[in-house]
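TODO from last week: model O-antigen ligase-related domain-containing protein.
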Amino acid sequence: MLLAWAPIPLGSNRGWAWAILVGGAFFILGFWLILWALEKAQVPDALRNAWPAFVLLGAFAALQAFHFVPLPPDWVEYLSPHSARLQAATTFLTGPRETMTLSIEPHASQVALVKTLGYSAVFFLVLALVNNRSRVLNAARVLVYVAVIQGVYAVLMHLSFSNDEHFGTIIAHGTSASGTYPNRNHFAGYLEMMSAVGIGLLIAGLSDKRAETWKAFLRDLVAWVLSPKMVLRLSLCVLVIALTTTHSRMGNTAFFSALMIAGVLGIVLSRYATRNTVILLASLVVLDLLIVGSWFGVEKLAARIEATTVEDVRTREEPAAYTLPLIKDYPILGAGPGTFYVAFPKYRPETVVSFYDHAHNDYAQIAAESGILGLSLLGGVVLLSLIAALRAQWVRRDPLMRGMAFASTMGITALLIHSWVDFNLQIPANAALFMVILALGWISLHLDRAHA
């Protein structure tokens, strides 16, 4: 329920909304820990074997906490000279400082730490609670079908050219499908991840049984049409329609690029890949892009990509490009988690009059706020999870685990591509769901390994 709710209140990108998301994760985690202390809950293999990821997440959280710990000015001067100079420049307002912090805005860093702990709790809970096959199926189905409801709502609002007030924010649905997100690019990021989970479910349900006769083939075809697999396939069509009507250039590029990359990797790595898997992946590209998409705006999307000018690209790249001097000034530790909106104005040229609270590039923003050290720690978590998913495709025979491994590989790849020009990981709902995608990589490798 918590994960289904997260996208609804503007992607949980409001103070009260992300507080519900994070607070809910803490509550469930606390309840699980009580059950564990009473020996009513067990530590699954996936949770136990994901300890390297938790070490890196713990180190990243400790780094964030270190940013707002009061330190002697000499220490801050040594560790972050620019931060010390910036705080020393305000002494005429505050008087001489006995202590300083590495963060140029300690309160923003405290908020960022709470969010990080909440996302880590989601990662932990998925590994702890999705601990058998039925729960894997239930969790994946809930995520996909909730996304389908979002997709239907988004497309209908778009086709009706509505401007709807949603939780106090006006969302212009007429220009593009945006669902419950104010920004269509973040809605596209949500659909990328949920589509990956849906494709993983489809792969999990495939078999390599061949029909010996035309009669048997027709019987199997009718059985497939009447089975839940057909509902899932139609659901994926809805998600592709919704993604196409977002008219998000990088969102759609990331989705289809990730589908092809994950497809090739899955076929190359999986010793147990079936012929039907190859057919399914080919049909996803051909049917969804050329047939379904052509009816619901792929031509508009193509026209928008074709009409993209150098000025459009420069506008999207400007915040990230102007962030590079900020990263150079705070190379190792960053200016402080959550402080981009405070630090960036100093590095913004006079020609840029817009206010940017994000860098429109997750890599640049994380490096600016938490330094190369913080970016490396988070990158390690993602890399380890991706390796786990790829290993699962190599060693697992279980179709469900191979399907979830594919979902994790594709979801991670899509967000990594999309993050170059957008800030999906700064949107609480998308960040939390990305942690679910990471957790699926560990689950696909370690769940029921005795029966692999």
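Done. Strands lie at 163-166, 169-172.
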